[in-house]
Amino acid sequence: MKHRVAAVFLTVCLLLSLLAVPAAAAGRYSDVPEGDWAAEVIEKATEYGLIQGKGDGTFGYGEYMNRASFVTVLCRMFGWEMVSPEKPSFSDCPPGEWYYSAVETALANGAIDSGLYFRPDDDISRQDMAVMLVRALGYENLALTQASAELPFADVTENRGYLALAYEFGVINGVAQADGSLLFLPGHSSTRQEAAAMLVRVYEKYHADIEFLHGFYAMSSYGQIDMAGEMDAVSLGWARMSLDESGTPYVNQSASGGNEWAVPQGAELATDALEEAGVDCNLSVYAAGSDLTAILSAGNRQTAVEQLVRAAGEYAGLTIDFEGLGASLRTPFTQFMTALRAALPEEKALWVCVQPDEWYGGYDYRALGEICGKVILMAHDYQDTNLPQGWVGTSQTRNAPAPLNKVYEALVSITDPDTGVADKSKIVLAVSITSVGLKVDQNGLLASTDIYTPAPDTLAARMKQSDAVRTWDAAAATPYLTYSADGEYYKVWYEDAQSIMAKANLAHMFGVDGLSIWRLGIIPNYADAQSYDVWSAVQTQRAGE
Fold first, then answer.
1. pTM to 2 decimals?
2. Alpha-carbon span 259 to 263, nearest angstrom
3. H, E, C per residue of 1-34
4. Residue 125 DSSP one-character state
5. Tens digits of per-residue pLDDT, 409-435?
6. pLDDT digits 0-9 by tens, 286-297
7. Do the record's keywords include Repeat (predicted)?
8. Given the DSSP bridges, would you call strands 374-378 and 349-354 parallel, antiparallel or unpaired?
């Protein structure tokens, strides 16, 4: 967990200060009005070590913050290693100035652009503050993908992508006008208390932990039963809702008919181990394709619900994984889930898996968030599965399974204040341990339309080859591995510790602190491979670790 010791210390300090100061921190600084909107964030900014007072018992309430002071705070907040090059990067920031190292460090970490002047003594504007924060978080490439994003502000004409991210993260808000419009006032100077508010919002999300860890246990998962025992909950993928010959829905848990969602032999070994570990286990029920229309129909709804209630049996509850729901099934699915929740015993959990509404319109996020205890957002599997023959011989080899901009757009949708899940603690971001392999020629051009899916064990072995090269694609926030095998060349996009944590950290910026992994049995935990120990990375960010 990030900065756990410091966080505990700060929490103790905060509790002690609250005992001594009944108001929202008015006693710490003599110039902060008691009950002021900024009193709490000023207190937090001080406790977090972001902004200190002026040394005379005042905070500098109402004073403007300059650009040099702001980048100094950024360096402190992100814990960057300070640099002090001999030659200055800006003509107005010479060596020897108190802010010299902070400005150079902010530049080295991408928070600011290079140029002739930095203007250290100028007041920091609301816009520059937001842009620097987004860049400091490492989201410059993501911001570029949102250059045409809609914003509620009528006065934003530049840096639209950066401000879109800051707005969706809840870092910035607008100023309501008499005519009902909302302005951001991008060029206005920021006061110290306004800076404190923005910094605290980012700090708390940047340092957030994974509060809820869930995994899917399906085929060939027992090899990682110990990992399952360290999760908060597991969904057992041992059921599929099917239709019998008469068109009546039933829960199929056998391998008949080629059903891969069947109870495996020796299932009790897994359930006994998880029970001993105290891990709640839901039965995950899958359905997809043309069966869904019949399953969700008014005539079959009651039968399907009764079958599911019976299947819940000794499990902690149900995880409904009905995939590919089109807009025409939006209302029927909501009605189905409402009926299922009403029929299930109160102590049984009901969770639901949903897909991004960019492709599917059948998931009413708002309603499902009210009905279900957890809403698992499956923001993955964006890769092309059928490549055009015309791409062969070209450089068209970008095929990341879950590019960060797509995950961002899915998070924007599911956290929408009007149509998204109202209680963000119910949202769980799902990541999929997958790979997308392409055959390329010696020049890196696409050599075939075939797609390969090397298993983690295979990839870990390939990483150790002398000709294997791991490359980080900053735009997708996804790595790819190039290597040769049997005289042929491959480029494989895959998920590793860095890419999985990039998604988890992005979710934190939306206030989403739940993570689900598909699936146990293939979670990379290779300490001797290149950034391929996903499990350790996840555990490091677990709450309480």
1. 0.94
2. 10
3. CCCHHHHHHHHHHHHHHHHHCCCCCCCCCCCCCC
4. B
5. 999 999 999 999 999 999 999 999 999
6. 999 999 999 999
7. yes
8. parallel
